[in-house]
Amino acid sequence: MIDRRTALAGVVGMFGAGLFAPIARAADAAKASRIPVISEGPPSAPVFTPAQRALVSALSERVIPTTDTPGAIAAGVPEFIEKMLADWAVPEERKPILAGLQAVEARSLQDYRVPAAKATPEQQDALLTLAMNGQIPSGAAFFEAFRQLVVTGYYTSEVGITQEREYLPVPGEYNGAFPYSQVNKVYSA
Q1: pLDDT per residue over 66-93, tens digit each?
Q2: Residues 67-94 as b or e (16 or more Cβ within 10 Å = b)
Q3: Helix (H, G, I), strand (E, B), or coil: what is residue 169?
Q4: How would you classify residue 41: left for phi > 0, otherwise alpha for psi between -120 and 50, otherwise beta?
Q5: Mean pLDDT of the chain
Q6: In this prediction, what percent of the chain has a pLDDT beyond 70?
Q7: I want to staple 132 with a disulfide (CB 3.0 to 4.6 A). Which of 45, 143, 151, 160 is the partner?
């Protein structure tokens, strides 16, 4: 069975040169096998307030929502994000995330008169779109780092590896004429 360390070591190729520094640092250490599996244990120190933690959960679920497979919350992505920021990020690297959460919260209160974590999914999508397009302060830097953390957390979790993707430790024979219509899931190894 593939574990988070192995998956994290392979995630670098998904983002290329623009990889968020804490993810790159953890992936480098994972490749060198100098660390325990990242998902073990709580973060060394809390990074988020309870309101920020709720917002991270809500926004994570909007990036990878529950469909026919579990979403970001079920995969433990919010906890992964806090652990990465607590244990792998220097204070300067936390700033885009914290500033972005603050900006998203302020915009939600301004536009919808509710905290962003309690906004409707459509409103949360609109807030993330504003951030992605740089239409809120610190939005673009926040969105890119946040998206990378969510995608990495999800696809290195047991849910992402075994339920969203099909895990084949030793794939079968090569068949160059395999009908694409018969592909059910993307395979990870």
Answers
A1: 998 899 999 999 999 999 899 888 889 8
A2: eebbbbbebbbbbbbbbbbbbbbeeebb
A3: coil
A4: left
A5: 82
A6: 71
A7: 143
Measure CA 107 to chain center.
Answer: 22
Residue where the block lists tokens 């307030």: 49
Quick one: 108 exposed, middle or buried, by C-beta within 10 A (0-12, 13-18, 19+)?
Answer: buried
Residue 36, both tokens: 């325990």
User: Binning pLDDT at 50, 70 and 90, where does residue 1 land?
Assistant: very low
CB 137 within 8 A of CB 75: no
Q: According to DSSP H, which parts of 50-138 are helical?
A: 50-63, 77-87, 91-112, 121-132
Sign of the torsion angle spanned by Cα atoms 87, 91, 97, 102: positive
Residue with tokens 């073990």: 40
Question: Across the strands, what pairs with 188?
Answer: 167
